[in-house]
Design a protein that fits this description.
49% helix; single chain; Gag-polypeptide of LTR copia-type; mainly alpha; 4 strands
Amino acid sequence: MRWFYASLSEGVMSQIVGYNSAFEIWETFASATIARITELRTMLQTIKKNGMSAMDYIQRIKHLCDTLATIGEPVSRNDHLIFLFGGLDKEYNSFVASVYNRPDQPSIEEIHSLLSSFDFRLEQQNPTIKLIHPQANAHPPSYHTNPDSAQRPSFHSPTIPSTPPPHTQPGILGKPQYPQSP
């Protein structure tokens, strides 16, 4: 066992102090490995893109798959695709369908590249637009209680005149503009 102890790092050595056989050490690490495999596979099953860039999302999945491979549980190509596509939002449905409907089976790396390109196109075609809401300055609704209605609140919205006051002109978004004093 001396040669075995001599080949271990201090961190691992501290975990196995007191064990008398390789079997005991193996059992300890095997149970920890099973728990880690379960944890990593659960992470793969539940990961979502949710605003991550395609590259970050791909790297996260690749890291989890690589970690599983290093502990003896490599992820198959099909499982990798299931995990990758399972975490994408509905805007990626056409991309997923196009990959599944290809006559060839592109490599994982090619699919990653295609996903990055598709993600870039989505970002370019769907820029975030900040809209000015026409009722942004309207008064919020008020709640009043009516004693005759058993304390049920009634909803009253503010009254907005249908015609502008005199000496005004309609402006942008239908808001009246008042003439400026000379």
